[in-house]
Write a structure and sequence with these properties.
4 strands; alpha+beta; 125 residues; four-stranded antiparallel sheet
């Protein structure tokens, strides 16, 4: 082989490697964002489910007393699943005196945005 004969070069150029790394980096960033978004969504769904359970617990305790609650508004706080929730229960009168309309709203403690709302009717025996 003479010194003037050139062998074909094998491999990738620096530009090809940089382009491949840039594409890989963009893909990884997108995957990380999707994972973080899924985690945030799971946390929000967990909070909403716990808030719905708080509302259902309030309604169950109201029904367990077997008494007709007086019309008005009641507020309180409770903890469930390691989270604090504030609830607001509004009892409204109905044409039949033995029934009441109950609306329960639950939100995270310190927040005014409701996470769950439950509407029901309660009657006494």
């Amino acid at each position: 082989m003479s010194p003037r004969t050139r062998l074909p070069l094998a491999g990738f150029t620096l530009i090809e490697v940089l382009v491949a790394l840039a594409i890989l980096a963009i893909g990884l960033v997108a995957a990380i964002r999707a994972g973080v978004g899924s985690s945030d969504t799971a946390d929000a769904l967990r909070s909403r489910q716990l808030a719905a359970w708080v509302a259902e617990n309030r309604l169950a305790s109201l029904r367990a007393t077997r008494q007709v609650p007086p019309p008005g508004e009641e507020r309180g706080e409770t903890e469930l699943g390691g989270e604090r929730f504030a609830w607001q229960m509004t009892v409204g009168a109905m044409p039949q005196e033995m029934f009441r309309r109950v609306e329960i709203r639950v939100h995270a403690a310190g927040s005014s945005q409701p996470l769950a709302q439950l509407n029901s009717f309660v009657g006494g025996l």
